[in-house]
Specification:
By secondary structure, the protein is an alpha/beta fold. The chain folds into 2 domains: 29 residues, no CATH class; 224 residues, 2-Layer Sandwich (Nucleotidyltransferase, domain 5), CATH 3.30.420. The protein has 8 helices and 8 strands; from the N terminus they run E-H-E-H-E-E-E-E-H-H-H-E-H-E-H-H. The strands form 2 sheets. It has a 6-stranded mixed β-sheet. Strands 1-2 form a two-stranded antiparallel ribbon. A hairpin with a 5-residue loop joins strand 5 and strand 6. The radius of gyration is 20 Å and the shape is elongated. The chain starts with 6 loop residues before the first strand and ends with a helix. The model has no long low-confidence stretch (mean pLDDT 89).
Length: 256
């Protein structure tokens, strides 16, 4: 089996098919989320990585495969070392874009508490067939938001609740690293810390995919981890999470 980073010369058959010169070295590439995972593979212990972008890919290094459920969009990624990694995913970046409709207001934890109090959180299902609730109904837990600030706060809470659900499925280990665009959303990270009760670190590397790809060619980057976020309490969050999960699961079941 060829691993990411392995290099071999082009043989005569491949040269004829591609037009490349025989003997040209070709290196096996790597998938973007696996590239983002690579910098953290050998940092010790069981841990999870939230690789964010159009998709949010949540991978549990050191986790077991016996809890995988394809009906909840779980799978085993194969890391750069050829080892299976339990994975859950949802279209986090795409859904955030849909929910916020281009709004860019600054928010804080008090705005999240307002979403909880006003019951204006999105439910899963805007993109059917993916994520831990693939048959979710869309819509909102209660009323829809009326301001841009409420849209952003609701979308941020939604990302945290979906990430929390995915991590509960694949396991968190002793720490979680968030990389990619989600690492720039401090409120999301604070919410995730409060939900999973596990140290959450934000990657300060803005090019995780490129860093991982470069590592295949011998680049040895410094570990760009911020200190863990401080644990915090958010009024009503735990009870709201439990209700949101039950509502999401019940709605998904009704549509099966």
């Amino acid at each position: 089996m060829s691993l990411a980073g392995d290099t071999a010369p082009v043989n005569k058959i491949a040269a004829k098919a591609t037009g490349l010169k025989p003997g040209t070295p070709v290196t096996s590439g790597i998938h973007d989320s696996n590239a983002s995972l690579l910098p953290w593979l050998d940092t010790g212990g069981a841990m999870s990585v939230v690789s964010s972008g159009t998709w949010a890919i949540l991978m549990s290094v050191g986790g077991t495969l016996d809890r995988l459920d394809s009906a909840r969009d779980m799978l085993a990624n194969v890391d750069a070392r050829g080892r299976p990694v339990p994975t859950a995913r949802f279209m986090g970046g795409r859904e955030y874009q849909m929910l916020t409709e281009g709004a860019v207001e600054e928010i804080s934890i008090s705005d999240i508490e307002a979403v909880i109090a006003n019951d204006t959180c999105p439910l899963p299902g805007r993109i059917s067939g993916v994520g831990p609730f693939p048959l979710g109904p869309g819509g909102w837990t209660g009323s829809s938001p009326e301001t841009d600030q409420a849209k952003i706060a609701g979308a941020t809470l939604y990302l945290a609740l979906m990430s929390d659900t995915c991590l509960s499925l694949v396991g968190t280990g002793d720490r979680v690293v968030v990389e990619g665009p989600f690492a720039k959303n401090t409120t999301y990270a604070q919410l995730l810390t409060a939900l999973i009760e596990c140290p959450v670190h934000l990657s300060t590397d803005t090019t995780g995919t490129a860093t991982g790809a470069a590592m295949l060619m011998g680049y040895a980057p410094p570990r760009a981890l911020a200190p863990p976020l401080k644990p915090m309490k958010i009024e009503g969050l735990s009870a709201f999470r439990d209700r949101w999960r039950k509502l999401s699961a019940a709605k998904s079941t009704l549509r099966r």
